[in-house]
Amino acid sequence: MSRLPVPTLPAPPVGVVGLGQLGGSLAAALVAAGREVTGWDVDPAAREAAAARGVRIGRDLGGVVMLAVPLPAMAQALAGLDVDPAATVTDLGSVKTPVLAELGPALGSRYVGGHPMCGTERSGHAATDPGLFTGARWAVCLEPGTELPRWLRVAEVALDAGAEVVPVTAAEHDDAVAAVSHVPHLLAAALAAAAADAGPLALALAAGSFRDGTRVTGSDPAFVLAMVQGNAGPTTAALARVLDQLTRPWPELVAAGHAVRATAPAGRRPVRVPLERAALLALGRAGGTVTRRLAAFVEGHVPGG
């Protein structure tokens, strides 16, 4: 078994491919955390904006390479770049199983899937925010063939950006985000379209609940379509569960929804978990997160007081 990296070893450099909202924000956050960061984007304006925030711009990437590009561009993201053959490659894509199937054969155990649960309906380098990841959940995939040292290096990048790490498999990730991210995009679109059909008066009277429920309709439609189509199976299943809920008697439905919020754990308790695949995945499945790396353990939290 390969020796685990320990916190006393120098943190490897980070390469960020794609300097839009997510990639630009990540690069800026890591520079602020003292990490060595090299970024690249096909857009000269994005490169200039990142350079102004202290990011080194170049095509030579090593250490941990983050792919912050749209899902359709993922397979060709490294084309034309000089990537260290020993580098660990991860991504920020909103769907994991298709990316694993696409990148896994070429990269093998060098690839570790990832997905930070943050971002806004804005896009592009102008939406860069170094604080975007602070307190966010960042799924880092731990498959049967994942090398734990590489998983840890990706997790350390997420922690340095201010996020909390959720150990998960690609399939578990896709099932979960279908319910809490992908279906909400479809519901927001349906709500907005139905309100528009109701006429100008309805839109004029729309207030906080409508605004909150439709906020993500401001997202790039191409991004949303790639996300839901890339995760079509789990999204279809999750949407079916929502439609089933809508057939319930309204008093029953309202009470059930309220109960979910009312019975949610009020706090969370600290835990220490060994650096073992089964233990890490159990932490993620329990709704827990990793917040700190130790030599042979991680520290984090699980729901509950």
- Low-pLDDT stretches are none
Using DSSP, what is the number of strands? 14
- Give the H and E element order: EHEHEEEEEHEEEHEHHHHHHEHEE
Using the CA coordinates, give the radius of gyration.
20 Å
Roughly what fraction of the amino acids lie in strands?
15-25%
Give the overall silhouette: globular
Number of continuous helical runs: 11
Describe the strand arrangement of the main beta sheet, using strand numbers. 3-2-1-5-7-8
Helix content: 40-55%
Q: Layout of SSEs?
A:
Elements: E1 14-17, H1 21-32, E2 37-40, H2 44-52, E3 56-57, E4 60-61, E5 64-67, E6 82-83, E7 88-91, H3 97-107, E8 111-112, E9 114-117, E10 137-141, H4 148-160, E11 164-168, H5 170-198, H6 200-205, H7 208-214, H8 221-230, H9 232-246, H10 250-262, E12 268-274, H11 277-285, E13 289-293, E14 297-303
Parallel strand pairs: 1-2, 1-5, 2-3, 4-6, 5-7, 7-8, 10-11
Antiparallel strand pairs: 9-10, 12-14, 13-14
Helix pairs in contact: 5-9
Features:
305 residues, alpha/beta, three-stranded mixed sheet, 19% strand, globular
